[in-house]
Amino acid sequence: MIRKFSALCAAALLLSGCGGSDSNESGVNLPTITNVPQMAVAGLPFQFQPALSGNTSAIQFSAKGLPDWASVDRDSGIITGTPGTDDVTAYHPFQLVVITDGQSRPFDAALTVAHTAEFQPRQAVDFRATDYDGNPRPLRNDLSNGNLAGEVMFAQSHTVKPNGNYDRDAGDETRSHYKPRLVALREALLMFTPEASETPVTVHAQLHQNGDPIGELALVHPNDLPASDHEGRHRIEYSTRAWSTTVPWNLVRNGLSVTFIVNKGAPDERSGTLVAADIDIGEASQIVFQSIRLGMLTHVDHNNGHFTLRDPVMAATDYFQTLPVSKMIMASYADMELDRVIIANGKIYDSVSDSEGGVYSGDMRENVAKSQVSVGINQANYGVTSSNMSQRYGHVFKQITNHHAWGNYQNGRQGHGLSGGNGIGTLYDSWGNEASHEWGHAYGLGHYPGANLTEDGRWQRHHADSGWGFIAHRNRMRDNLSHNSWSEDKLPDGSHFLGRIPYRYDSMSGGGGGNRFSHYTHYTGYTARIIQNDLAQFPIPDTSYATGYKMWNTETGQYEPHMFTDGIQPRVPVQVGVPVATLLGGYDPDGSNAVIYPVFHGNYGNVFELPKPAPTGDSCWLTVRNGANQQKQIAVAAGRHTNATINQFHVNLEADFRPTEATLNCRRNGSVAELARTSFDGQIPELPPAAIVGQERGFKQLAAREIATLNETLGNLADDAFPLVDANTQVLLASYDSAELINALSNQAKQVLQVLQQHQKHVSSARALITRLEHSNASQTEIRGKLTDFLIQKGYIRTAEDMELEGTVLRNGNQQIGLIPDENGYLPVFNDADEHPDAARWLMSARGSLHPVEKPWLCLAPTSGRLGLALCDPSRENQQWRYREDTTLQNLGSGQCIDYAWHNQTVLMYGCHGNGNQRWQGVTRTGSPLLAALPGYVVRALYQR
């Protein structure tokens, strides 16, 4: 796709000029321009010197309409300048004027400026290039109404086609398609792959809503498609041919159409439209998560796995990327330790349960944690004041209430987890596959969904057509492959990409967790479609709608008031998403046993005008008072909801009411009896704000936190002449656009950012320079010379002598790590008291990368549990090492250490223990910015002979 010359420029400059003939009336020959300029490249110096024929005496030059970045020398006619990224264009017309003998002769011409990325090939495997069976994937044409053909894909939680994502073939499920639809009101990565005959300079997308223009977006070059998160032997990208851009959340709605324009404004401009009827957009749905730690006659624990409570902002942002939903709320309740509980038969415990408990067992697990607390919190947010204690209830909107719960049982203190469904999550950990799996049950998913549809069980795992994801807050594509895994034997393509790398399994089918960008399991397209359909059926509470609830209309592309059709109108909330004081407990309206628990405090809930008790007849009610002598009375059921259990009550009050006392009374046959009374301290515990992601909230909460971190990190580098940032900081910097960072950082941090950005531009220009020279058939020596000059000019080195490298052999006793990998890509080990001739000499850069001096463009990296070499990439954490005080070498990506395995004389990655077989001598450090900052592609051009 790289062009050496611009056909547009050639056609323009070979014209004979506006004057027509090549001689004037006196017969004097007039000059003609006989050469054409090369295409300019953003970020690289450009020069064009016109070659003239005919009369060359007394010639001067001028130009009309040159872009701002270019200028012409009056005497020589040389056009020079360096275009920036904003100057990329397929066609910029101008006139070059030749002046001779007092006559001016204009020549119509045009400049073309290519993306820098066009000259930065990724050298990656294209995932989209092959289908389920490993055969070349044909390119689909999704466009009409024009002369341009190409394939369109969208990426949100999953990569999806514009339409046809659900296409079942019941007779042959291997021919079926199962994926979610595009989600309304959610940011989407838009990808366009033109047919193979197209080699665009630029691609633009014009967006329309119901035929009205709503914006135009410039797509970035395929080499700038968001990078994948894959880690392994080969670099794998979702596509190496797809142009891409991000469609803002508010523009993704029904009625959207997209017109793609190749080489806009150029004579060879082509266009085609993805019409609105061919874009299938689903509902703008919402889900609310609540989380609490609960001790039942015991204390609660705090551990790192309580992700939704420990870091709700990151938990919400992370899980959002796996779910086809438009908006997500991750809310929290304060820890609760109950010293008195009531169970479904009305019995009250104040020290220990009568039953034994376990992961799936225990009466308090069932009746207190799941029913009274999780279901109770859900019901309080629906405006339902009482219900049965058997967990049978209607779901007004989509909410899942998680508890990390422990109880005191006959067999001691027991924790509960590994369970989900019915709006409840009973979890040990609220991250990893446990959370993804148990929440999956709450969407109606069973175990191994789709496993029996085909003989090969393809729908229970990822495969070539199950979808990748888009981790939007990191601007990363999410692959569906196992990381650092490679089969030496060729296996079926359906289960192994390239026949070598296993696909991941779905969360409901024994799947594993995430990767360095995510703690959650990525659902397959098959289960994501089921999840999307489950979420889409629920209305969303919103006080700005008359009914108190809204639903997305896929015909109009708008939210509309939701009218419940089952004859039951839930209570209309008067406040949505406010801090609440939730009163929970159990009571027997036919007896005398009741318990009112301490106030459960949450940071996000709904408040209602709750029913008041009837003045006459049998009734039960709660009376709640506060320190200001205010009182609320709330009616609860006067009889059992079901004969099998006593009742439970659940009421939300605004937190600022600050309850200090609650009583539960029942009037039976005209006589009022007090069943329970509990006093409270009236305090509101400190809780973090609820985490909200999606729609207008985007990822603003995470951004505010991370930009504050960047402000501190970059500020600390202000005195460094050549600032280097670690892999985590690189991830944060890549997550936000430059304008967002510049506006938020301090002046000191901003200056460091500008240095880093300038460095990044230098690296991009260096890569583009190399590729440009290679495509002009420059020799290796010429490339090395021009690149060296460039690096000297930019301050990376002072002279060519600064490029000299000296390293040492890495030793564990007499064991030395070799340089040449075996046939499987693993580095050998040599046993030699002296320096073995095949042992590598290593250098550690300032960023912690380990380079063999003989091939410094390569970096030491784990591969399938062993050690191998990979082309250096400064952004890869698995290429960075920490040389610790105990002389162990720890990989920053995996956290494991290099280990010499005595039983088979190999080096492998293993948990760090510091024993003798993990201690390595010979780590030589260098402060050279060449190895610390430049990617392997550039370093190779400097050193390869």
From TrEMBL:
<keyword id="KW-0378">Hydrolase</keyword>
<feature type="binding site">
    <location>
        <position position="447"/>
    </location>
    <ligand>
        <name>Zn(2+)</name>
    </ligand>
</feature>
<dbReference type="GO" id="GO:0016020">
    <property type="term" value="C:membrane"/>
</dbReference>
<feature type="domain" description="Peptidase M66">
    <location>
        <begin position="286"/>
        <end position="541"/>
    </location>
</feature>
<dbReference type="Pfam" id="PF10462">
    <property type="entry name" value="Peptidase_M66"/>
</dbReference>
<dbReference type="GO" id="GO:0006508">
    <property type="term" value="P:proteolysis"/>
</dbReference>
<dbReference type="InterPro" id="IPR022218">
    <property type="entry name" value="TagA_dom"/>
</dbReference>
<feature type="binding site">
    <location>
        <position position="437"/>
    </location>
    <ligand>
        <name>Zn(2+)</name>
    </ligand>
</feature>
<feature type="active site">
    <location>
        <position position="438"/>
    </location>
</feature>
<dbReference type="InterPro" id="IPR035992">
    <property type="entry name" value="Ricin_B-like_lectins"/>
</dbReference>
<dbReference type="Pfam" id="PF05345">
    <property type="entry name" value="He_PIG"/>
</dbReference>
<dbReference type="Pfam" id="PF00652">
    <property type="entry name" value="Ricin_B_lectin"/>
</dbReference>
<dbReference type="InterPro" id="IPR000772">
    <property type="entry name" value="Ricin_B_lectin"/>
</dbReference>
<dbReference type="InterPro" id="IPR019503">
    <property type="entry name" value="Peptidase_M66_dom"/>
</dbReference>
<keyword id="KW-0862">Zinc</keyword>
<dbReference type="GO" id="GO:0005509">
    <property type="term" value="F:calcium ion binding"/>
</dbReference>
<keyword id="KW-0482">Metalloprotease</keyword>
<dbReference type="Pfam" id="PF12561">
    <property type="entry name" value="TagA"/>
</dbReference>
<keyword id="KW-0732">Signal</keyword>
<keyword id="KW-0479">Metal-binding</keyword>
<keyword id="KW-0645">Protease</keyword>
<dbReference type="InterPro" id="IPR013783">
    <property type="entry name" value="Ig-like_fold"/>
</dbReference>
<dbReference type="InterPro" id="IPR015919">
    <property type="entry name" value="Cadherin-like_sf"/>
</dbReference>
<feature type="signal peptide">
    <location>
        <begin position="1"/>
        <end position="21"/>
    </location>
</feature>
<dbReference type="GO" id="GO:0004222">
    <property type="term" value="F:metalloendopeptidase activity"/>
</dbReference>
<protein>
    <recommendedName>
        <fullName>Peptidase M66 domain-containing protein</fullName>
    </recommendedName>
</protein>
<dbReference type="InterPro" id="IPR051256">
    <property type="entry name" value="Dictomallein"/>
</dbReference>
<feature type="binding site">
    <location>
        <position position="441"/>
    </location>
    <ligand>
        <name>Zn(2+)</name>
    </ligand>
</feature>
